[in-house]
Amino acid sequence: MQNRIKGSDHMCFGCSERNPIGFKLKFTMDGDICRTEFTAGEEHQGWNGYMHGGLIAAILDETMAWWLWLKDISIMTVEMTIRYSLGVPVHTRLRVESWCEEEKRGKLFHMAGQIILPDGKVAAKARAKFMKIDPAQF
Ligand SMILES: CCCCCCCC(=O)SCCNC(=O)CCNC(=O)[C@H](O)C(C)(C)COP(=O)(O)OP(=O)(O)OC[C@H]1O[C@@H](n2cnc3c(N)ncnc32)[C@H](O)[C@@H]1OP(=O)(O)O
After folding, report:
1. pTM of the prediction?
2. Cα(108) to centroid of ligand 1, in Å?
3. Is 63 left (phi over 0), alpha (psi -120 to 50) or beta?
4. For the chain, how many structural domains are there in total?
C-alpha cells in the first residue's frame, strides 16, 4: 500500500495529483504537527455556501493518516469521531493539522486533527484510531 500511496500510479482521493476529482492535498511536518491547506469550492458543498460534512471528515482522516505516512507507518483508519462546531465556508483558505495523542503497543495510534478558519477558530475537530497494517496484504 505504501508504494501505491506514494508511487506515481496511486489514485488516492485525498492526496493523488492524478485523481481528477480528488482534493490533491500536500502535507508537511512542522515539528510534531502534520499540516495542509485547502480551499473548498462549489462542488464540495452540502448546505449552500458550506462544505459537506462527509468531505470535512475525509480531509481530517487524510491529514491524520499522513502524520503516520510521513513517518513511514502503514495504517488504516479503524475508528473516527468528529465534532462539527462551526460551518466550514467554501472559497475560504482552511488550515488543517493533525497530531498523535497516544501510541498503543506500536500498533494502534490515537490521532487528532482539526480544521481552522482564517480567524483562528476551530470549525471541526476529529479523534481517530489508526491500526498499523502489513502493506503487502493490500
Ligand atoms: C496516504 C494515506 C491515505 C489513506 C486514506 C486515509 C485512511 C483511510 O481512510 S483507510 C480506509 C478506511 N479504513 C478501512 O477500510 C479499514 C477496514 N478495516 C480492516 O481492513 C481491518 O479491520 C484491519 C486490517 C484494519 C484490521 O484487521 P485485523 O488485523 O483483523 O484486526 P482485528 O483482529 O479486528 O483487530 C486487531 C486488534 O486491534 C483492536 N481493534 C480493532 N479495531 C479497534 C478500534 N477501533 N479501537 C480499538 N481497538 C481496535 C482489536 O480489538 C484487536 O486487539 P487485540 O490484538 O488485542 O485482540
Report:
1. 0.94
2. 8
3. alpha
4. 1
